[in-house]
Amino acid sequence: MRVLWVKAGKLLPVDTGGKIRSYNILRFLGKNEDHEVTLLSYYGGRRDPEYETALAKEIPGSQTIYTAAPDSTAIQRGVDYLCRLPRRAPYAVSKFTHRTVRATLADWLSSGRFDVAVCDFLCSSLNFPTRLPIPCVLFQHNVESSLWQRMAAMESNPVKKLSFAIESAKMTGYERATLGKFHHIIAVSEHDRQQMLQMNPACQITVVPTGVDTQKFKVAPASSTCPPRVVFTGSMDWEPNIDAVKYFRSQIWPAIRKEFPDAIFQIVGRNPFPKVQRLASESVQVTGTVPSVAEYLEKASVVVVPLRIGGGTRLKIFEAMAMGKALVSTSIGAEGLEVESGRDLLLADNAASFAEAVLVLLHDDAIRRRLEQAAVQLIAQYDWSRAVKQFAEVLTSAKSKNPFQSGGWAPPTAGGYSQ
To answer: Do the Cβ atoms of 373 and 187 come closer than 8 Å?
Structure first.
């Protein structure tokens, strides 16, 4: 099967949840002799020849397009946002839409070179032509409209709140329409699948659960670190993660420090925004980019996922579980995962109960050990090879049920949006 995979932005380094998911699926698909995979990675900002060389080496057969889209500074992004504000498509989509990419896709999709195409994330979707000459599958890592709705609801800054509300309204209409544009949708959880079916009941949606690299994230010995370490991992330039650590630091951490004065809270993740860097103190460490997240998880006493905004599934939970770590999460943080509070981890949805849950794990070694063992048992059934097999089955099915005849597939809901 000849697969074209279209991804906005750089795939390397593999340092975000979305990149980890895409990279591992691409890697395992490429190892299968029955499949020929071509990755089209297009990116803006500064030209990066080193990235292009590294990608060609890491993912053989990959192609890159440099768009020169403004993505270097906050001022550039702000000006670009204002210029695109009158457009119907949400900014999170229009900023990743480019005439060269659209022209290339139109040519490649109609050339007969590929049997099926994958649109990786909704942000790439506007580059696909209205009439699709071959089966095209949309890979939905999140329900984007839900994510923007939560961001708008949680934001306190009035200017950002208004911006998020505008983008939320745009995204809701765009996502509903675009779900009908593609022949098949891949969701990462049943929760996401049900949300998308509510938006467009006619969609064909299959759930392919997230996997975990069990070779990289191996079971670690029980942590005896003193003082105790509470660890959060995630990209620290992503708004839901920023909100999570600010919430934890201001409303939860003081109660934990009251009982464990020497405890350390480690915020581990790339590119921390200034408001994250300002959280650093004697008891709070902001690491920035690290060579290996696994090294920090290994020494964690407890891993926390205090997300109040989010969508899709949280790879950070799978990675911590693979290393045999006890977790405390909000319901949103664990949304879409087949976990049960008290069996696999602890769930807490307000500051007082979250602090209490962390304290229980720090005080009671037996409860912590039980959750650590349960985490390892659960994660044993999640491996990237299994997830990729399911992913490939969806692509094969899409290819075999090719409805794209007589000029291509053009459902009524697909139109109305332009670059």
So the answer is: no
Amino acid letter, 312:
G
Residues 275 and 393 in one domain: no
Shared domain check, 392 and 363:
no
Q: Could you tell me if 403 and 349 lie in one domain?
A: no
Q: Is residue 216 part of a domain?
A: no
* 287 plus 390 within the same structural domain: no
Query: By residue range, what is the domain housing residue 324?
Result: 229-379
What pTM did the predictor assign? Answer: 0.86
CA distance 416 to 174: 9
397: phi then psi, degrees, rounded to nearest 5: -65, -40
**Exposed, middle or buried by CB within 10 Å (0-12, 13-18, 19+), for 165?**
middle
The domain tally of the chain equals 2
Q: What is the CA radius of gyration of the chain?
A: 22
C-alpha angle with apex 255: 254 to 257, nearest 5 degrees?
65
**Tens-place pLDDT, residues 341-394:** 999 999 999 999 999 999 999 999 999 999 999 999 999 888 898 899 999 999
Q: Which of 375, 400, 261 is nearest to 318 (CA)?
A: 375
